[in-house]
Structures are given as C-alpha cells and as structure tokens.
Amino acid sequence: MDFLEHDLKTLQEDMLEAFLPSETKTLLLQLTSAVDYLHSDWILHRDLKTSNILMNNRGQIKIADFGMARYYGDPPPKLTQLVVTLWYRAPELLLGADKYGAAVDVWSLGCIFGELLTKQPLLQGKNEVDQLSKVSTLPRPASDLPKWLKQEIQIFELCGIPSESTWPGFKRLPNARSLRLPATSNPKLTGAVIRAKFPLLTGAGTDLLSSLLSLNPAARPTAAEVLQHPYFKEDPRPKNTAMFPTFPSKAGQEKRRKVLTPEAPKRGEAPKMAGGDVDFSGIFANREEEQVGGGFSLRLV
C-alpha cells in the first residue's frame, strides 16, 4: 500500500478548525466512492471510522483495516453483531440484529460525515454519559448502564424514537424487546435536532445527513445514491484534491498524543440487557420547545 501521511482522526485532533465545506465534500465523496466499490463487490467493511481512513498530503484518502470485512449476499446471511466500533455502530447492531447488509456501513458514513463537520465524533456513547440526564425514567444510575445502551440513548436523542411505522419490525430485535418507548413520537423532530446541532449545514446537507442516520436500515440510501445527492452539486463545490492544504506528518516515529477512544468489539462482548426494562418514554419531553433550527438575527442600533 502507498505511504499516506495521516489518518483522519489524528489529523482532526491537531487541526485548529474543521475542514472547509468544500473539503468535507471532497473527502466524503472519496470515502463513499470507496464504500460503493466494496458494496458492488458484495463486501462489507464493518469498521468504518476516521482512524481507519488514511489521507496523504494531496487530499487523497484510502480505507484501511479490513480485519472485520466480510462477504455478504441478498438476502443477507446470519452474521455477528459484534462489529463496528461503538461510536459508529448502527442501531440495528446495537439492538442485536444478526442479519444485516450494506446499511451498517452507510450508518458509519453518516457518523463520519458529522465528525468531519465538527472535528468531534458524533455519538460518543462511552464518554458522553451526561446525555442520560435527559432521560429521567431510567431504572438505574447511568454508570450502571451497558455501553451499547448509552450509545442507543444518544442515537434516539439525535435520530428520534423508532416506531413500527418508521422502522417496521424493529421490536422483534433481541435487545428491543425490553425497551419501553413512548406510544407516539414526532418524526419531524429529527430534522430539527440535526439542524440545531449543525446550524451551518445547508438544507441539502441536512437532508443527506438525516438519510444516512435513518434508524430504519431500509430507509438509508445506498452508497451509489449518496454519490448522486444534490449536496455535492451545490456551492461550494467539492475542492480539487490538488488544492488541499498540507499538514505535518504524524505517520513516522514522532510521539503522538494518546486519546482514549473505543476499540472494535472483541469476542465475548455481546450486548445484553442487565435485568429489567429500560424506559425511554420521557426522552423527548418538551423537545418541541427546546429544539430550534439554525439561523441568526440582526439587531439594528
């Protein structure tokens, strides 16, 4: 493999500002094109994350670490749900699905898209336990909850509460049987939450991110469909890789800052419900009043 100077995770940790919108589009287009190539050959990567995306000083990226990659088919075969690093793991895997396809990689694309916009992982299920305070009816302290459940709570906060109308059959997944969810939820809240979290993202960008992070795997676009999305055709257009800035290389023997991040799953770490039901019924209490879209106002003096 060619030598590449950076991985996106380490690079973003050292950058003062996030990538420009034109640069984000270029990186996302390259990554999606690579994922589309894999899926067209019936290969799932199953561990897409910024630390597995390498970039050279010409703005060109390559996907690395195929240790969890597997062939799949249609219908999908029975596979382990112990795949994908926690922060980039799709909700169907968290809920125990053992039959899945390309949509798990597409979810990871959505998480990486959000990370490129802010330089921060979008759903940090291990460390952002403070988000649990928004759910007042959990049966036990946040510190006692399994990691996968903390991640699921964050996903529901950002992407909405699943229902049979938005995600048919999700209640039949092993880890969904013990969840107490509100009887109704407003699907329009999802877009409002994403707009509030990414106020500078355009309408087309919000639409793309929302579709990539659809709770229902069947509702997520394919990688080929993502490449045709209007987000990439609006201004600013994707930047030519030859115009990318260069950064000092950290791929040599220099001492690197150690940042604690979750690792890919290992054998024996299957998520389990540790006794009792988990109540999500209050997760969107007063959300209509709390969440507003992005924007600003001018005050004339």
TrEMBL record:
Transmembrane domains' residue ranges: none
Keyword check for ATP-binding: yes
EC number of this enzyme: 2.7.11.22
Keyword terms, alphabetized: ATP-binding, Kinase, Nucleotide-binding, Serine/threonine-protein kinase, Transferase
GO biological process, one term: regulation of mitotic cell cycle
Entries under SMART domains matching the protein: S_TKc
Region (Disordered): 247-278
Gene Ontology CC: nucleus
Similarity remark: Belongs to the protein kinase superfamily. CMGC Ser/Thr protein kinase family. CDC2/CDKX subfamily.
Record-given protein name: cyclin-dependent kinase
